[in-house]
Design goal:
By secondary structure, this protein is an alpha+beta fold. The protein has two domains: 1-83 and 94-102, Aminopeptidase (3-Layer(aba) Sandwich), CATH 3.40.630.30; 131-175, no CATH class. Helices cover 28% and strands 34% of the residues. It has helices at 24-31, 33-36, 40-43, 49-61, 110-124, 140-148; strands at residues 6-8, 12-16, 66-72, 78-88, 93-100, 130-136, 152-163, 166-176. The relative contact order is 0.15. The structure holds coenzyme A.
Length: 186
């Protein structure tokens, strides 16, 4: 799989994240309880420059995952990430997750722009057929974001994931490639 990804949306350059991109603002964002509230794996331990760089390296060598940085076009500031994971070359699907760790940017449409742009990239350049995303049912911003990006609700999974001391509902979103060509299966 091509690991060097780079494309533009209106206000963002989206490209493969490398360890040198990892700044303290990124690490602080991941440790912020308001930001990591619904990010199960991030919350498991306190993040450091070392652990985040290690995560970036792991994604760089993984044959099934891509970690993309969301950089503002004009200031070239890293404001968040999108992770494309569990890429299956047989089922032609993947999962997607997003985090804008610079919370001063929330509500300005960056999440939608990044998600819509990445979905387009996955369908047009990686030629996958289906993308899925699991969202905690109480993560209102994320529910709106995935609906806005054209995902449909494929399932409501009651009490699937633990969140602190309770189990919560997860909404499973999916989107299919509208320009899928059957001949690719041959
Ligand atoms: C979810 C997240 C990526 C959204 O990013 P964003 O840049 O604010 O997204 P947008 O500005 O494109 O907004 C997306 C939608 O969420 C809504 N929204 C934004 N913040 C919200 C909030 N705090 N509460 C409710 N809705 C909110 C917006 O109004 C918009 O909906 P609309 O277009 O119907 O009005 C961002 O909040 C984030 O990184 N959160 C922490 C990590 C996380 O939970 N990731 C998702 C895991 S599944």
């Amino acid at each position: 799989m091509r690991k060097k990804v780079r494309f533009n949306t209106k206000r963002l350059t989206i490209r493969t994240l490398i360890p040198v991109h990892v700044a303290i603002s990124y690490v602080r964002g991941l440790n912020d309880p308001e930001i990591n509230r619904y990010l199960v794996n991030v919350r498991l331990r306190k993040q450091s420059l070392k652990s985040v760089k290690e995560f970036v390296r792991m994604n760089l060598v993984s044959p099934t995952d891509l970690l993309l940085g969301l950089f503002t076009k004009y200031e070239n500031v890293l404001i968040g990430t999108i992770r494309v994971s569990n890429i299956s070359r047989f089922h032609l699907l993947c999962s997607i997750g997003i985090c804008i760790f610079d919370k001063s940017r929330w509500g300005n449409g960056y999440g939608g722009e990044a998600l819509i742009g990445t979905v387009k990239y996955i369908f047009e350049k990686i030629h996958l057929h289906y993308i899925e995303a699991g969202v905690y049912a109480d993560n209102k911003a994320s529910l709106r974001l995935f609906r806005k990006a054209g995902f449909r609700v494929d399932a409501h999974l009651k009490n699937k994931y633990r969140h602190a001391d309770s189990f919560r509902e997860v909404v499973l979103f999916g989107i299919e490639n509208p320009d899928w060509k059957r001949k690719r299966l041959r």
